[in-house]
Write a structure and sequence with these properties.
Elements (H helix, E strand, L loop, with lengths): L33 H29 L22 E10 L5 E11 L5 E7 L3 E10 L3 E10 L8 E7 L6 E8 L5 E8 L1
Antiparallel strand pairs: 1-2, 1-8, 2-3, 3-4, 4-5, 5-6, 6-7, 7-8
């Protein structure tokens, strides 16, 4: 009797697999070309930096110079000594057609080194503050803002210009617009 065929494949030489071990992971990559890639990135980066620097330099060269700021009148030093103190005088007011309106007296107090002062308009019974807004070699310009007017007949805001042509006196020009829209100008000499 012959023996039955065996179910063991290891005995059969034709059934042997050429794959001995199987891996689920790919084999490692070669590092042979990675140095070329690094050099390429470095060269491209350096070229880009050179191009950006050249473009930036060209744009900077073409960029216009900023225009200088217009000179503002100097107000930083405040009211000079020759304008400081208490002044008073008669003002003659006229309208924009030159027609006389009224005469009044002003008492003006200016504090040296500051940009402020006070004004009393008599007999109009008005009071206000003056704030230095412009100072030139020949004049001071103030904004006047009313702080007291019980009869509501004074001009609320106006501009006062003072100049000293003769030492010890101030030439004053007070310009404002009435509630009706009429420009009123008052001039006088203060001592």
């Amino acid at each position: 009797m012959t023996a039955p065929p065996s179910s063991d494949r290891s005995e059969c030489p034709a059934a042997v697999s050429p794959i001995r071990e199987m891996s689920l992971w790919p084999p490692p990559r070669s590092t042979r070309h990675s140095n070329r890639r690094s050099r390429l990135v470095l060269v491209v980066g350096a070229a880009a930096a050179v191009v950006l620097a050249a473009v930036g330099g060209a744009l900077w060269a073409l960029w216009p110079e900023p225009e200088p700021e217009p000179e503002q009148p100097a107000v930083s030093e405040g009211i000079p000594e020759e304008y400081a103190g208490s002044w008073s005088g008669e003002m003659a007011q006229h309208d924009e057609n030159g027609e006389p309106v009224t005469e009044w007296i002003v008492r003006l107090k200016l504090d040296e080194g500051t940009d402020r002062g006070s004004a009393d308009l008599l007999p109009l019974d008005c009071r206000g503050t003056v704030v230095l807004t412009e100072q030139t070699e020949t004049s001071l310009v103030f904004d006047y803002a009313e702080t007291y007017d019980p009869e509501d007949h004074c001009i609320d805001e106006s501009v006062l210009t003072l100049s000293q042509q003769v030492p010890g006196t101030l030439e004053a020009e007070w310009v404002g617009t009435s509630r009706e829209g009429t420009v009123m100008t008052s001039t006088g000499t203060l001592k």
